[in-house]
Design goal:
By secondary structure, this protein is of the alpha/beta class. The strands form 2 sheets. It has a 6-stranded mixed beta sheet, sandwiched between helices. Strands 2-1-4-5 form a 4-stranded antiparallel beta sheet, with helices on one face. It is globular. It starts with a strand and ends with a helix.
C-alpha cells in the first residue's frame, strides 16, 4: 500500500429542512493508495451518503475530505462511480456505452479504442460488444457499467452496492470478477455494502458504521492473503472475522435501540 489516497477528517452531514436529519457525525478515516476499503453497516447508516460526498455529488456540513491531497468540491475524473444499477443508454450497444465517456471528453478514437477493447476483455465482454443492454443479463449489464468507469482511468473506484440487485449466484460471479480486476489494476476502491461476507471477501480493510447518525464504530483489517477466490468464503479465518463483525453490529444496534 502507498500513501493516503483518501483522507477524511471530522466529516459531518446534516440534511436541512423543517426536520433536520443528521446523516453523518465526525467521520475520520484514511484509505491508502491501492487499498480496497469496504463501508459496512445497517441500512440508513449513511454509507451511501459518505460515498456521495467522496464523489462530489453532495457537500459536507462540516469537516474535510481530500482525494490525493486535493479537496473534494465537485465530481472529478480521478473518481469513478459504479452504482447499484448500471444505468446504461438503452439505445447504445455495449461498445458505444463503454466509449461514450472518452468521446464526450473529445478524445480521438486512437486515444481510447485499444483501452476500451482491453477493458471489455478484462470484464469478459469482448464477444458482446455489439449487443444492446436489453440483450444482456443483469450481471452482464453491471460488467458494462464497470467497464464504462474503468475506461476513463480513474485513480479511485467508488462502488455503491454494485451487486445488491443481483441474484445470489450472479453476485458471487461478480465478486470473483471484481477480485480479478482489482488484482490486475490495484485501484483504490471504496465499496459500500451491507453484506458481511462480501466485505470480508473483497476488502483489505472494513469500516463498520453505526446506525444514524453514521459514525465509524470499528475498523477491521482483513489479513487473508491475496489473490483470493470464492474458496476464501470457507476458510476458518473468514468465519472468525465474520463472527467478530456480526457481534459488533448486533451490539451497535442494541445500544441504539430505545430503552
Amino acid at each position: 500500500m502507498g500513501a493516503a489516497a483518501i483522507s477524511i477528517r471530522g466529516l459531518d452531514k446534516v440534511y436541512g429542512g423543517a426536520h433536520p436529519v443528521e446523516a453523518l457525525r465526525g467521520i475520520d478515516l484514511e484509505i491508502a493508495d491501492g487499498e480496497f476499503a469496504a463501508l459496512l453497516g445497517p441500512s440508513g447508516c449513511g454509507k451511501s451518503t459518505l460515498l456521495n460526498l467522496l464523489a462530489g455529488f453532495e457537500a459536507p456540513t462540516g469537516g474535510s475530505l481530500a482525494v490525493y491531497d486535493a479537496p473534494v468540491a465537485q465530481p472529478g475524473p480521478e473518481r469513478g462511480v459504479v452504482f447499484q444499477e448500471a444505468a446504461l443508454f438503452p439505445w447504445l450497444n455495449v461498445w458505444e456505452n463503454v466509449v461514450f465517456g472518452p468521446k464526450v471528453q473529445g478524445l480521438a478514437p486512437r486515444e481510447y479504442e485499444e483501452r476500451a477493447r482491453e477493458t471489455l476483455r478484462l470484464v469478459g465482454l469482448d464477444r458482446f460488444d455489439r449487443h444492446l443492454p436489453v440483450q444482456l443479463s443483469g450481471g452482464m449489464r453491471q460488467r458494462v457499467g464497470i467497464a464504462r468507469v474503468l475506461v476513463m482511468k480513474p485513480r479511485v473506484l467508488l462502488m455503491d452496492e454494485p451487486f445488491g440487485a443481483l441474484d445470489a449466484q450472479t453476485r458471487l460471479s461478480m465478486q470473483q470478477l471484481l477480485l480479478d480486476v482489482w488484482q490486475k489494476l490495484k485501484k483504490t476502491v471504496v465499496f459500500v455494502t451491507h453484506d458481511i461476507d462480501e466485505a470480508i471477501l473483497l476488502a483489505d480493510v472494513i469500516y463498520v458504521m453505526s446506525p444514524r447518525p453514521g459514525r465509524i464504530q470499528s475498523r477491521y483489517r482483513v489479513e487473508m492473503p491475496r489473490p483470493r477466490s470464492l474458496d476464501t468464503l470457507t476458510e476458518a479465518g473468514f468465519n472468525e472475522l465474520k463472527r467478530a463483525i456480526m457481534h459488533q453490529i448486533r451490539h451497535d444496534i442494541a445500544a441504539d435501540a430505545p430503552a
